[in-house]
Design brief:
CATH class: Alpha Beta
Strand order of the largest sheet: 1-2-4-3-5-6-9-10
Strand content: 15-25%
Shape: globular
Helix content: 25-40%
Distance between the termini: 21 Å
CATH architecture: 3-Layer(aba) Sandwich
CATH superfamily: Alpha/Beta hydrolase fold, catalytic domain
Number of strands: 10
Number of domains: 1
Radius of gyration: 18 Å
Structural class: alpha/beta
C-alpha cells in the first residue's frame, strides 16, 4: 500500500493504492480518511484488483477549497470522474461508507458508464425529501440534530479541534458496536443523534479507557495527524451542503441506480435508530433494481469496514469477483 497524489483536472487528490487489475474506488466518510480502507485495500489487491482509496476533498492531503459551496456531492463525484481520467481508466467499481456511501450512490446514479458497480456501507439510497433537509431535522429547545449543529461555520470546528485525538476517540467508540446494542428511541450515547445546545457534541459521549480491538493506538495516531493537518472544516462542509445537494439533485428525481449494487449495515449502527430507516432499506430495490443483497453484520456499528474487516472484505469479493472485468 503506497500513498500517491495526482492532479485530477485541477483537483489534487491524495490516495492510497495497491494491486493491479480492475479498479475499485473506496470512499471514506466523516470523520475518516482513506486509511479507513486499509484492510480492504490489502484484501482486494491480493484478489487481483487495483484498490484505490482517495482522501475526499477537504480531507488529508487532498484539495481543501475555502468556499463552503465547493463541497456538494456533485463536486465529490466530479473529483472521482477526474481521478479516473487522470489514471486513464475507463470504468471502476465504487465502494463507500457513511458520506462515502452517499457519494458512491450518486456516482453510480449519474455516471453508470464510469462506475459499473456500487457497494454502500451504512447509508442506503433514499428518495429525495419533499423539502430541504434542514427543514425536516428535529430542533428542540435544548437539543438539535447533529446535522443542524454542524451548519454554523466555526462552531463544531472549535469543539472538535480543541483536542483532536480525544474527539476522534469519543466519536469512533460511541458510533461503534462496542458502545452496545441500539434500539429505536433509546438513549445510548451517539455522535450522530441529538446534540445539546449547551454542551455540544462531545459532552455526552464517553471517553473509553481502552480503544476497541479494531482500532489501535497507531491507527489513532494516523487519523489524529491527518486531522491536525486538515482540521474538520472540509468534512463539516459536506453537511453544510445538504440543502444545496437537495436543490441540485432535483433533476435526478425518479432515476434509478441500474448497475449491480450491494448494501451492508452494522447491526448496531446508530443510523438504524432513525425512525423509518428499516423501511427505507426495505424499499431500496425500487430505487436500485440491481441490488444483489442487503446485509446486516451482527454486532458491528457504524465503522463497518474497520470493525469487521474480514466480513466486509469477503462480502465485497463475493460481490465483485463474478462481475465482468472492466478497465
Amino acid at each position: 500500500m503506497q500513498r500517491r497524489a495526482i492532479d485530477a483536472r485541477g483537483t489534487t487528490i491524495s490516495f492510497l493504492e495497491a494491486g493491479e487489475g480492475p479498479l475499485v474506488l473506496l470512499c471514506h466518510g466523516f470523520p475518516e480518511t482513506a486509511y479507513a480502507w486499509r484492510h480492504q485495500i490489502a484484501a482486494l489487491s491480493a484478489a487481483g484488483f487495483r484498490a484505490i482509496a482517495p482522501d475526499l476533498r477537504g480531507y488529508g492531503d487532498s484539495l481543501q477549497p475555502e468556499a463552503i459551496d465547493a463541497y456538494t456531492v456533485m463536486h465529490a463525484v466530479g473529483d472521482l470522474v477526474g481521478l479516473l481520467d487522470a489514471l486513464e481508466v475507463r470504468q471502476a467499481a465504487i465502494v463507500g461508507g457513511d458520506w462515502g456511501a452517499t457519494v458512491a450512490w450518486q456516482a453510480a446514479l449519474m455516471q453508470p458508464r464510469r462506475f459499473h458497480a456500487v457497494a454502500a456501507l451504512g447509508v442506503p439510497l433514499m428518495e429525495s425529501a419533499p423539502m430541504p433537509p434542514t427543514r425536516l431535522f428535529p430542533s428542540l429547545e435544548h437539543t438539535q440534530l447533529y446535522t443542524l449543529y454542524f451548519q454554523e461555520p466555526g462552531v463544531a470546528e472549535q469543539e472538535l479541534e480543541h483536542d483532536i485525538r480525544m474527539s476522534l476517540r469519543k466519536i469512533y467508540f460511541s458510533a461503534s458496536g462496542d458502545a452496545g446494542p441500539r434500539r429505536p428511541g433509546d438513549d445510548t450515547p451517539n455522535p450522530f443523534g441529538m446534540v445539546s445546545r449547551s454542551h455540544g457534541l462531545l459532552g455526552a459521549l464517553p471517553d473509553p479507557d481502552m480503544l476497541p480491538d479494531w482500532l489501535t493506538e497507531a491507527d489513532l495516531d494516523i487519523y489524529t495527524a491527518a486531522f491536525e493537518r486538515s482540521g474538520f472544516r472540509g468534512g463539516l462542509n459536506y453537511y453544510r451542503n445538504l440543502d444545496r445537494n437537495w436543490e441540485l439533485q432535483r433533476s435526478l428525481h425518479g432515476m434509478q441506480v441500474t448497475v449491480p449494487a450491494l448494501f451492508a449495515v452494522g447491526e448496531r449502527d446508530p443510523g438504524l435508530q432513525i425512525p423509518g430507516m428499516e423501511a427505507i432499506i426495505d424499499a431500496m430495490p425500487r430505487l436500485v433494481p440491481g441490488l444483489r443483497d442487503s446485509i446486516v453484520v451482527p454486532g458491528a456499528g457504524h465503522w463497518l469496514q474497520q470493525e469487521r474487516p474480514d466480513a466486509v472484505s469477503r462480502e465485497l469479493l463475493d460481490f465483485l469477483l463474478p462481475l465482468p472485468h472492466r478497465s
